[in-house]
Amino acid sequence: MKKIFISLLLTLCVSFCATGQDACSVYYPHKKGTTFEITNYNKKGKKEGVVKYTISNVEGNTATIEAVILDEKDKEVTTTSYNIMCEGNSISIDFKSLISPEMLQQYKDMDIDVSGTNIELPNDLDIGKKLKNANMIMTINMGGMNMKMTMDIINRTVDAKENITTPAGSFDCYALSYDSEVKMGIKTSFTIKEWIAEGVGVVKTESYNKKGKLMGYSELTSFSK
């Protein structure tokens, strides 16, 4: 179950890379055909999987993202797609799109109801800026018995400006952090750090447990538009 929670958090983080609109976002590409790849690693640097993203369609303020999820041996596990909206001075990501592929696979034959508050990322990032909280509530019908999972994203802050190098290149980034509290029977807390580059999106994420120990990370390993 912990692996699903971590994957959910990493999916949440890397989904920010997916898109934006040049007219309203300085941080994300908004061009049909743009492709990029995120590779996930465990705390020891061992590859755990890859997600290959493609902006398959752009219509007005909405872009459609197709994602192919591969395991550590590059074998396809599942695919998914979702929309991200450009709203005024920010990007708004539908929380329904942030359910981890592993969870979609596990509960694909069950009725799932999802509600919550979208994550917003404004154009005017600056060190010390506080960003809006977000949350997700997912109810899974397991044959007459409902299982509920909640996820709260809080304390979102812009911490610094840093240069980050990944296999996709070197990027000047804003460093952001936030806390995530996941409850599914038991409550689990994580801290997420992410680095976001202009015109690219998130290039790296790291997840830490409540004791401050690294649990896993992900990096942008290719990008083309």
Characterization of this structure:
The protein is mainly beta. 9% of the residues lie in helices and 60% in strands. It has 2 helices and 13 strands. It has helices at 2-15, 101-106; strands at residues 35-42, 47-59, 62-71, 76-87, 90-93, 111-117, 119-122, 134-141, 146-166, 169-184, 186-197, 201-208, 214-224. It has a 13-stranded antiparallel β-sheet with strand order 6-8-9-10-11-12-13-1-2-3-4-5-7. It is globular and about 50 Å long. Residues 8-22 have low confidence and may be disordered.
State the end-to-end CA separation: 36 Å
Q: What is the number of E strands?
A: 13
Mean pLDDT: 83
Count of DSSP H/I helices: 2
Spans with pLDDT under 50 lasting ≥5 residues? 8-22
| Percent of residues in β-strands | over 45%
Q: Rg to the nearest angstrom? A: 16 Å
Fill in the keyword field for this structure.
2 helices, mainly beta, 225 residues, single chain, 13 strands, 60% strand, globular
Topology diagram in text:
Blueprint: H1 2-15, E1 35-42, E2 47-59, E3 62-71, E4 76-87, E5 90-93, H2 101-106, E6 111-117, E7 119-122, E8 134-141, E9 146-166, E10 169-184, E11 186-197, E12 201-208, E13 214-224
Antiparallel strand pairs: 1-2, 1-13, 2-3, 3-4, 4-5, 5-7, 6-8, 8-9, 9-10, 10-11, 11-12, 12-13
